[in-house]
Every structure is written in C-alpha cells, then in structure tokens.
Amino acid sequence: MEKINLPFIYDLALKLNPIAKMTYDKAERADIWMGAMNVVDSLEFLFKKFPSLAACRTKCAELRSATDEATGWIINTKDSEWEKEDARADGIFERVIKMAKESEVVLSAELHTLAAYHITQKGIYSTADLIERGEGILPDHVLGRIGQSAVGEIRESGKCLAFDCATASAFHMMRATEEVMHRYYVSVCKPKPAKRLQNWGAYIAELGKSNKPEVKEVVAMLQQIKDRHRNLIMHPDIVLSIDEAFTLFEIAQGAIIAMADNITAGGRKRRK
Q1: What dotted CATH number matches 127-260?
Q2: pLDDT, tens digit, 9 for 90 and up, residues 24-67
Q3: How far apart are CA 178 and CA 85, in angstroms?
Q4: How deeply is 6 buried, as exposed, middle or buried, from its count of CB atoms within 10 A (0-12, 13-18, 19+)?
Q5: Which of 76, 159, 180, 206 has its CA 20 to 30 A from that of 137?
Q6: CA-to-CA distance for 219 and 181, rounded, in angstroms?
Q7: Are 20 and 97 in contact (CB under 8 A)?
Q8: In this predicted structure, what is the pLDDT of residue 264?
C-alpha cells in the first residue's frame, strides 16, 4: 500500500495543461521546450509510482522523444536565431504540443482506472493515525509496559479499522488484549513458571482468585469482552460490522490501560 500524493498530480496537471492548450508560434519555441521538459520529468516520476498506467507511459515516451528533438534543436541553434523561419523547427515544436495534448487526454482517461479510494474517518480518530500508528490510542507509559507484540497487533487493528476490515480489526485487537492479559497475569499471580495458559477462561479464572478490588474490576472487564465479543469473533460464521469493530476497539483499549497500570516494562507490578 502506498499513499497517493494528490498535490503532485495536481501540480502535474498545472504543468501539462498550458502546453496542451498552446497554438504553435515560432516566438514561443523556448517556452514550449522548457514547459515540456518539466512535464516529461513529472510524468516519468508518476509512472515509477504507478506502473499500471501503461497507455500513459507510451504517450510519455512519444512526448519525451519530441522533447529530446526540441532540446537538440535548442542546443544547436544560437539563441538569437530561436525565432527564425525554419520549417524543420516548426515541425519539431508542433509535435511537442501535439504529444502534450495527447498525453493530457490519455492521462485523464487512465487516471479514472487508478484504484484510488477515500477512507472514511472512524469516530474522532485521524485516518492517517489509524493507518500508520494505531497504537497511538494508548498513552506512552502504557505502550512501554505491554510489549512490542501487543503494540504491533494494535497497529494492525487500527489499520484494518481504517480500511473497513471490521472482523480483522477485532481479531487483532483481541490478540493484543490477550498478550497484555498474559503480562498482567504474570504480574498479579506471579506463577512459577510464567508459562502461557490455554485460553481466556483460564486466565480469568486465575486472576479471579485475587481479592484485590482493582483486579476484580479488570476481571469483570475481561469476562465481558470474552463473553460478548471474543467468543463471537472466533466463530467462522460471524462477520462484524464496522460499528461493532469500532466499539470493541475502544472497549479493549480501556481493558489494556487498566491492566497496564499493574505492569512495568519488565512484567513486574508497578509501584504505587
């Protein structure tokens, strides 16, 4: 996936359109040449980014050829003679304009085939943040305690949420929650050895043995997520709506923050 630089395409159109609209005049040979040089370089950059624009690439090659011929004429002609009567020069620069016009038409048509989409905003979250740094929903001090694996899952969940992949977003968020749940279990229960348990039910059962009010609150949150969300997500016939995924994204966020309050980067309980 690559972000489309819309200002670049707009700038390219601004460069190409004036040449395409020109009516040839020998007094404007230098202007035609300089404008074509800027356009050709920009077009070639565009094709490197979007190799699927095959028809445009053919026209660009023709425009490049015409521009190279105009460059040769400019180099080999004294600037004092750039506006002289010259039938061969007329043909060269008229071809540049012709190729610019054809390039504009083909580019405009082929851009309609480009797979470009507008991503709708989810809640108050910035679309760019969801795609590139979904873990930003958590404070820095929380990110430092939950481990890189959980951070990566949250990042993937945010990306899926942005692109309306609701079930995938929820799946990644549940994986993140489970990663943090294990660290929380190790911090609260201090098992020896600190091996992973079989499932959410096992973690909740062990954590439920604690008499601490803050742990009981976390257990209640995890039990709700397990019963109302996590178990459904694991069923192959269930497909979540984007609203359901968004809701779970925020519910899991709250549970992760609550668990992280008792975890340090090393997996030990935070001193209060």
Answers
A1: 1.20.120
A2: 999 999 999 999 988 888 888 887 777 777 778 888 889 999 99
A3: 80
A4: exposed
A5: 206
A6: 10
A7: yes
A8: 65
Which H or E run includes 5? none
Three-state DSSP at 84 gives: coil
User: Within a 10 A sphere around the Cβ of 238, how many other Cβ atoms?
Assistant: 12
Q: Say what the pLDDT of residue 201 is.
A: 93
| Domain range annotation of the chain | 6-111, 127-260
Enter the DSSP assignment of 134.
G
- The confidence score (pLDDT) of residue 200 equals 93
pLDDT digits (tens, 9 = 90+) for 174-227: 999 999 999 999 999 999 888 999 999 999 999 999 999 999 999 999 999 998
Query: Over pLDDT 70: what percentage of the chain?
Result: 96
pLDDT higher for 49 or 139?
A: 139
* 252 and 228 Cβ atoms separated by less than 8 Å: no
Using the Cα atoms of residue 154, residue 158, residue 159 and residue 163 in order, give the sign of their dihedral: positive
Q: At what angle do helices 242-260 and 166-189 cross, to 10 degrees?
A: 20
What mean pLDDT comes out for the span 233-259? Answer: 88
Give CA–CA dist 9/111, Å, rounded.
10
* Long-range CB pairs of 193-196, under 8 A, 24+ apart, other chains included: 194/267
266: exposed, middle or buried (Cβ count in 10 Å: 0-12, 13-18, 19+): exposed
The amino acid present at 199, given as its one-letter code, is N
Q: Rounded CA gap, 136 and 43, in Å?
A: 37
pTM here is 0.70
